[in-house]
Amino acid sequence: MAAPAALALGALALGLPGAASAAGDNWPGQPLRWIVPYPAGGGTDVVARALGQAISPALGQPVVVDNRPGAATIVGADAVAHSKPDGYTLLTADTGTLAANPSLYKKLPYSADKDFAHVSLVARFPLVLVTSPGFPAHTLKDIVAYAQQHPGKVNFASPGAGSPHHLAMELFMDQTHTKMTHVPYKGAAPAVQDLMAGQVDLMFVDLASGQQNVLAGKLRPVAVATPRRLGVLPNVPTVAESGVAGTADFQAYAWQGVVVPAGTPRPVVARLNAELVKALKSPEVQKRFEGIGVEPVSSTPEEFAQYARSEAERWGKLIKAKGITVD
């Protein structure tokens, strides 16, 4: 899920001097509410709180995080989709919200295409293929060979059906012509716990959920699903460089961005974009992200909208081809 080159940090196209004044002297005239569609304490929550604290001084108003977990981000997304488009309600929208849910669910209470105005991408969560400590295959080639020799016998965990972690494994099986059995969990924490205990064999884990256990040797990292090796795991090869047939272009991320209700004034969107991009460049935010294994990434609103559409097309094709549904 490679982000386009235009999404490099420092995309300040909308941070022009006139953007703030164009938003009107009365905005923001009250605290902003940032809805996070996940429980407090997780990687998504940390990202939102770090950015909220970073942009608050420039806006002159507090940014209050409101955790609305439930139904694969649908609860939070629905709340924002039907909020007043006045620039005071933000949403962390991720791969599930904008790219996977429209194909996973027969009916959604929101439209990913029509109900939101894109502000900026903010983060990518690199995915790492890890195994339980006792799994007999240690390299990616060995895992593929083992799975081919034992079709359906290898179990893989995920934080839930249709999650980026699940879809990454479906893509991997598709490209390697393997068949493994999916064991969905209600969240990353229980999946990782069972993986460490050897109850399941392997999974794609994001570093926000698994970095501590990987570095502690409780999970065995095999390959990263990124174009380049990760600084925190310099000795772990990428999937592409592992030499497995069919995986030369394999990439998968969990990504997140910020959206507001459709109809939010463009100058307000521009101001929010400028402040978020500035915050994502700050050493404080970058250090906080690095500490939980998250990559900061920014964009213009237009780039984010285009990226979300391309991701929806990419993962939608896979979901429909595999017949994945959560209804």
TrEMBL record:
It comes from the Bacteria. Keywords: Signal. This is ABC transporter substrate-binding protein. Belongs to the UPF0065 (bug) family. The lineage of its organism: Bacteria, Pseudomonadati, Pseudomonadota, Betaproteobacteria, Burkholderiales. It holds the Pfam family TctC. PANTHER family: BLR1237 PROTEIN, TRICARBOXYLATE-BINDING PROTEIN. Residues 1-22 form the signal peptide.
